[in-house]
Structure formats: C-alpha cells, structure tokens
Write a structure and sequence with these properties.
The protein is α/β, with parallel strands linked by helices. It folds into two domains: 69 residues, lambda repressor-like DNA-binding domains (434 Repressor (Amino-terminal Domain)), CATH 1.10.260.40; 142 residues, Endonuclease, Chain A (2-Layer Sandwich), CATH 3.30.870.10. The protein is built from twelve helices and six strands. It has a six-stranded mixed beta sheet with strand order 3-2-1-4-5-6, sandwiched between helices. A hairpin with a 4-residue loop joins strand 5 and strand 6. Helix 2 packs across helix 3 and helix 7 packs across helix 8. The longest helix is centred in the last third of the chain and has 17 residues. It starts with 13 loop residues before the first helix and ends with a helix.
C-alpha cells in the first residue's frame, strides 16, 4: 500500500497555495508525479516536496507548469509571491533540513554554534536567556540542543565548516572552566575528515555578516537553503539569488579567516593563557 498523500493547507501561505494548486491541476489532468517529472525535467521527489510546501519552487519551474497546464502566467505570478515568503514553520523546518544536510557551512559572530556546544556551555546560555525557567525546563532545552549533535556522530555525518568571529572564542560563557572545556572541544574539531573550524580575527574589521549568524546547507537532493538568525528571530531562506549572495559573503569571510592550523594555535593560546 502506498504512503498516503500529505494533507495540503493552501490557506497557510503562498508557498502552500502553490503546492496545493500544483497537486490539484496535476490530478485534474490525470497526471502522476512520475509523468509530470518527465515533462518538466525535475525529479518526482522534488515535485512531491514542492506540492507539500517543503521546498520553495525553483525559478524555472513555474513557467514550465503554466505551459504544461495551459494556465497562462498563473504559477509564475504565484511564485513571485511565494519566493519572498519567510517559511511559516522555519524552526521546525530548519531541524528537518539540518538532518538532511550533506554539507553545513556556518558563520557565528557571537556564540559557539549549537551543533558544537558543550552541555555546560549550552546550559549557561539557556539559563541567562530564560531566567524564569525551572531547572527541569532548562534541562529539557539542553537535551534538545544536544540531540541535534547526533548527526555529527552518524555513520555518514555531514561535512561541517565553521567560521567563528574572534569574539566567539574570547567571550567567557559560563565561567572559566566551562569556557575552557568549550574551547578544548573546538580544538578537536578544527581539522578532521568531516569538520573544519577557522577563526576570523578582529583585525579583519567590518564585513557583510556582522550582527548575526548564517548557516548554509546543501541537502541530500543537492538543493541549497540558508538560515540567518539574530537575537530572537530567524529566517529560513530558499530564494536562490539570496542564497548566492549569502554564499559569496561566507566565502569571502572564509578567505580572510585564519587557516585551520593557525586557528588551532589561536584557540590553544587562549586555553593556555592565565585565567
């Protein structure tokens, strides 16, 4: 028995409406996903994810759909709205996409990224950002964060590259002992078969990613997404043009960052410095 089709919710957003309308017109035309995939030259799985709003449509697909279904510029106009829409389920979706990522490139300007935080480092952050939370609530948050790190220990982990602003490794989080343990954990990840860590020194000065964090993910179907985050907000980006611009900013930072070996020496110097 085939897997039941996921329920569509076209009233939620433009991207949901795009997917629902695509499925409606495909089924009305008596076309299977496999047949439509042949006609528009996209994989069945990619089209299925577009129908359920898991992926934003690629730029050239709307025109092909209008041609197939004879809908004028219906899908083109709908795409013009959907492509600029922040994903309505961005936090849940970020976790889902992260689990599917084959390559993760991350810039952090203030804090060690959650994927490589130690337990005590994460706990200190949750305590200060949730001052009214109970100890049990804090531990639940810590457990959730640490659970994300299982993908780095998987049989086929993603390739992880991180560029950390010097502020990330200099700001003492949780006290000297906690920070020392966190720095030691970073040193272990600086240059491995699947991870690299590079430090962007203060002397580099201003750059395009100041004030936030950026995560770029290449997924198991070779599609690309980006996630940007500030103090209390985050946005999942699937627009290819915006992702290209963020990728360019990240590549420039990586070019100006210290090499992995020099980054390891830089972090070790902080570890060995008197408290």
């Amino acid at each position: 028995m085939g897997r039941p089709a996921r329920k569509l919710t076209p009233d939620r957003s433009a991207r949901h409406l795009f997917g629902a309308d695509l499925r409606h017109r495909r089924e009305a035309a008596g076309m299977t996903l496999e047949k439509l995939a042949e006609v528009v030259c996209y994989s069945r799985s990619h089209l299925a994810r577009i129908e359920t709003a898991e992926h934003v449509p690629p730029p050239d697909l709307p025109g092909r759909l209008d041609e197939v279904f004879g809908t004028g510029e219906h899908f083109v106009r709908l795409y013009a709205i959907a492509r600029h829409e922040v994903h309505p389920d961005k936090y849940r979706r970020r976790m889902e996409l992260e689990a599917r990522a084959r390559v993760i490139d991350e810039y952090a300007g203030h804090l060690v990224p959650g994927l490589v935080q130690t337990e005590d480092y994460a706990r200190a952050l949750f305590r200060v950002s949730n001052p009214k939370a109970t100890p049990d609530e804090i531990e639940e948050l810590v457990s959730a964060r640490l659970s994300r790190q299982a993908l780095l220990r998987a049989e086929a982990p993603p390739d992880l590259s991180m560029v950390l602003d010097e502020a990330v490794i200099r700001r003492p989080i949780g006290g000297p002992a906690v920070m020392q343990a966190q720095l030691a954990a970073l040193v272990d990840l600086v240059d491995t078969p699947t991870t690299t860590v590079q430090v962007l020194p203060f002397e580099h000065g201003e750059h395009a990613l100041l004030g936030g964090t950026l995560t770029l993910m290449t997924l198991d179907d070779d599609s690309n997404v980006a996630y940007v985050e500030s103090i209390a907000t985050g946005a999942l980006i699937e627009d290819p043009q915006i992702i290209h611009a963020r990728r360019r900013s990240y590549d420039l930072l990586r070019a100006y960052a210290l090499s992995p070996s020099k980054s390891a020496s830089f972090i070790r110097a902080l570890l060995e410095a008197p408290s």
